[in-house]
Write a structure and sequence with these properties.
The chain contains no helices and seven strands. 0% of the residues lie in helices and 46% in strands. It has one domain. It is globular, with a radius of gyration of 14 Å. It binds zinc ion (ZN).
Length: 104
């Protein structure tokens, strides 16, 4: 996995983990629901047109044993795409980014 800590600049803007630009766009929200160690349930919402997809097989938030939420973000500057993931791990919530598409 290519996890990096989530980075936010002094203006409170999310920064791209590949290039550091704060010109980013949230494209999808994916929710992974799961009781501990049981089967995952996914749904993804397109933030632009509101389309909802159930059972998303490429949800990147599926690591770990419990539930998570992932924001699919595109970078306007370098063309990369990454997920901002909030993942439940035991009694804590991990927050990290994971590269989804390499920069151009
Ligand atoms: Zn970038």
């Amino acid at each position: 996995m290519n996890h990096k800590p989530m980075s936010v600049n002094s203006d409170g803007h999310l920064e791209c983990p590949a290039c550091g630009s704060d010109y980013t766009h949230v494209r999808h929200v994916t929710v992974q629901s799961r009781q501990e160690d049981s089967e995952d349930q996914f749904f993804r919402t397109n933030t632009t047109d509101g389309t909802v997809t159930l059972g998303d097989p490429d949800a990147r938030a599926c690591s770990g044993r419990r539930h998570s939420i992932a924001l699919w973000v595109d970078c306007e500057h370098c063309g990369s795409a990454f997920d901002v993931v909030l993942s439940q791990h035991k009694g804590q919530t991990e927050v990290f980014t994971e590269l989804r598409r390499e920069p151009r």
